Amino acid sequence: MTSATSTIVALATAPTAGAVGILRLSGPAALEVGRRLAPGVPVEPTPRHAYLASFVDAQGRALDEGLFLYFRAPASFTGEDVVELQAHGSPRLLQLLLARALEDGLARPAAPGEFTRRAFLNGRIDLTRAEAVADLVAADSESAVRAAAAGLSGALTERVRALEEPLRSLHADLEGVLNFPDEAEGADENSEARVQALRAQAEALLSEAGHGRLVRRGARVALFGPVNAGKSTLFNRLVGEARALVDDEPGTTRDALEARVEWNGLGVTLFDTAGLRETPGRVEALGIARTRELLAGVDLTVLVLPPGTSEADAERWRAEAGVTDVLVVDGKCDVAVGSEAPGSAPRPRVSGLTGEGVDALRESLLSRLWGGGTPSAVALVSERHADALRRAAEALSRAESASRLSTLEVVSGEVSLALEALGELSGTSASEALIDAIFQRFCIGK
Ligand SMILES: Nc1nc2c(ncn2[C@@H]2O[C@H](COP(=O)(O)OP(=O)(O)OP(=O)(O)O)[C@@H](O)[C@H]2O)c(=O)[nH]1
Ligand SMILES: [Mg+2]
Fold first, then answer.
1. What is the CA(107)–ligand 2 centre distance, in A?
2. In DSSP terms, which residues pair with 71 in a beta bridge?
3. Integer CA distances (angstroms), 3 to 65, 81, 119, 432, in order
């Protein structure tokens, strides 16, 4: 923790004009530097008290008037002395205040995420909560805000702890039996069942990673299908504005278009794509190639068919989506002539033109993407978390077979590997490099 004794400073608000701009200091010299900017504040200010203060430059000339707040270590976000100056939100003024704070060399500019990193290093928050801070700042849908807020209040931490603690006591029991067979006799009795239960628990948490990804990045949904099926019209209807060009000439859409919507709090990026057909023109062919590429990278595709498409043709179009999940609908249902192929299950019908069936389509998209439950109840499992959980679950699964076939040493060794993987999650056994990588994601001032 080499840099923890330095004092850092950064603007905590975005560098654009706003009602309020915040300069934040953390470290042993925070109060001294803060008071150089606001000399009117008492030498020993009351912590957590808002002082109305005049902010001045090195010559004592007034720059602004605002609030001065002092948080005394360790009762602050970072666990160090923290000072916040709340000034008017002029980017130029804030630059002057920042320059003044740096002028005497008592403070240095903060690196991205350094405030949160200090909070973590000083034990104020664990790693999953620190990550929730970054998630909250990046959240761009209601579900992402709610899930990050749940993470911030420790939802994921709790679940990891509920796994880590029994695992640790299992490990202690096994090591006890191995090292002090007389004293600890019998402590390993139901170890197989304990390992099994913990493995299932790790896997259950792991299975929420898909939901975590949807919440964090938003879902990606692409409309595709044969030319002229009414995809762009439906796209416009789903987005709520005329974004895509619509025309009765087949091959209207060439570039893929995207629009961001929010459905039931879940962020969804919708794509409209170039219609597929066998003998396209040259430019159109490029668009079709792009459609195929795009389809491989989305969470769900909607195959829009012209009314009366046969089941065999529908199957042929459906194959275009490859392995991606497909929802098949009949478009232009306002003109459909009831020519459904005999024996086939009726497909949902929509009309981008009249809006018929569009709400139902939205509902089925959401339930395909999400299943039951509400987006806010999810534990925000990230790729990093999923990777650590996967390794923990794998080690536990090996421990499980070892508890039937092998020696206790092997079981205990695997349990210890599982513990280590979970420690990376909460941060108790995270390497410096991993911690660096995590805080790189943050913005300056966080
Ligand atoms: N009656 C009716 N006409 C529609 C409907 N949707 C689209 N159309 C018409 O069908 C034609 C093609 O519509 P688009 O939305 O451009 O179809 P597309 O699938 O995007 O076509 P490409 O981009 O060429 O692949 C236009 O003339 C639309 O007005 C619908 O629901 N009902
Ligand atoms: Mg189109």
1. 57
2. 82
3. 32, 15, 13, 13
Name which residue sits closest to atom 27 of ligand 1, judged by CA: 248
pLDDT, one tens digit per residue, over 415-444 is 999 999 999 888 887 778 778 878 877 777
Contacts of 406 (CB under 8 A, 6+ apart): none
Share of the chain above pLDDT 90, in %: 53
Of 110-119, 157-166, 182-191, the poorest mean pLDDT is in 182-191
3-state secondary structure (DSSP) of residue 302? strand
Position 372 scores a pLDDT of 66
Q: How many domains does the chain have?
A: 3
Range of the domain at 264: 215-376
Q: Which of 332, 356, 376 is the last residue of a domain?
A: 376
- Cβ atoms of 267 and 144 closer than 8 Å: yes
Give the residue with greater pLDDT, 37 vs 385.
37
Could you tell me which of 106, 109, 115, 86 has the C-alpha nearest to residue 36?
106
Confidence band, pLDDT 50/70/90 cuts, at residue 154? confident
Pocket of ligand 1 contains residue 334 by CB under 6 Å: yes
Span 183-216, pLDDT tens digits: 777 777 788 899 999 999 999 888 887 788 888 8
351 ligand 1 Cβ < 6 A: yes
Query: Alpha-carbon distance 148 to 127, whole Å?
Result: 13
Residue 229's nearest CA partner among 250, 211, 200 is: 250
Q: Residues near 395 by Cβ (< 8 Å), separated by ≥ 6?
A: 414, 415, 417, 418, 421
Report residue 346 CA to chain centroid gap: 38
- Cα separation, 275 vs 244, in Å, equals 13
Q: What average pLDDT does the chain have?
A: 88
Nearest residue (CA) to ligand 1, atom 32: 332
Q: Which residues contact 134 (CB under 8 A, 6 or more apart)?
A: 113, 116, 441, 442, 446
**Ligand with an atom nearest the CA of residue 352:** 1
pLDDT for position 374: 62
Report yes or no: 26 and 106 within 8 Å, Cβ to Cβ.
no
Does 228 map to a domain? yes
117 inside domain: no
